[in-house]
Amino acid sequence: MRQRSVTGPLILIGVGVVLLLHEFTPDFSVFRLLGEYWPFAVILAGLLGLAEVLFHASRGNPIPPRPISGWVWIFVVFGAMGAWGYHHGKVQIGQFESGGVSILGTSYDYGVNAETPTDGVSLVVIENLRGNVSLQGTDDRKVLVTGHRTVRAYNKKDADRANAGTVKLERHGETVIVHGETPDAQQALDVSGDLEIQVPRGVNVEVSNSRGDIRLSDLSKDVKVDTKRSSLVRISNVKGKLSLNGSGEDVQLETIGGPVNVNGKYAGTLEFRSLAQSLHFQSDVTDMRVEAVPGSVTLDLSDLRMKNVTGPVRFTTKSRDVQIEEATNSVELDLERGDIEIEGGKPLPKMDIHTRRGNIDLSIPETAAFDLKANTEQGEVENDFGNALTIATVGRASSAKGSVGKGPGVQLVTGRGTVSIKKK
Question: DSSP 3-state assignment of 296?
Fold first, then answer.
């Protein structure tokens, strides 16, 4: 049987990996990659074809026809297009993803120390700094930027030219902009750093960063943060409203005086503590609203945990386990899948709890008043309140209904799972 070449499929896998990086990595450019690496792609394809030929020849097998086929020409054409469009004369191998894996080039460190007065300024904008940013409000009437920048380049001369404009402070009317320049690829492969910024605590602040951790604290006005790729966003001691948008991993928000809105894809753990006003979190699959958070709310990809929160509480998602302790006013939950545990306080909040697949465990103070309806389509109802609740079973479905005193309505519904109503 004639052998088939594997070089073509291997190259196709490589193309797929490049396109996947382009889709999920904001700073990754396919055309820049082709413009810089296309000679290496041709060499790699040739080496794969030669290795395959030598392998089959050493084993006495028939040589596959056209081991590199027309895939090499595709790389040549697209590589030439990328090189022409990018106007780049050197072959570089720089960063492939956040955190940096650079095969060529040397890192050069530079100190940063810049400031500007802020008399009459009401807004400070931080944008495109490409690194970790720590911002703190102070009583001084100036913007002060300190820290260091790291420039990766082929030589010191190129690094010096790239560093000359990496951080700029500009005044436009009542706005001060702290701006990070995107490095010229002919001078630097990458620019990153760690910056500490001091601003007057009485100004509004907007931060937009393509990558890096963000820490903000001690601000009296409104804060808006946009992220593309961050492992941590920590914001504390803000008296105004807070808006956080984008993507990243961990989020920690603590002691915020105004409304908090979080919108985006954050794949780590989100922690909210001491929020005086409303919290609204929204992603592609989750919507959460809480009137206030005197205690804490912790949300990750598998769990939601609330303790000492002020309702109304509304939470909708596809798949998460939920634990709530000491919620007031009302609680509404709607899950596709997940177990729910609620420890009610006194007075008991109004509840409307739904999960299509999962157990519901409700603990009620022994002396609390309530009007309860519970139903499971496939499962059992467990009852600690005796004759106060009427239990019915029809086939695989079970239900409970009854009242203790004159209290709020409590509705518990699961498509498949056990409903437990316990005294505490």
Answer: strand
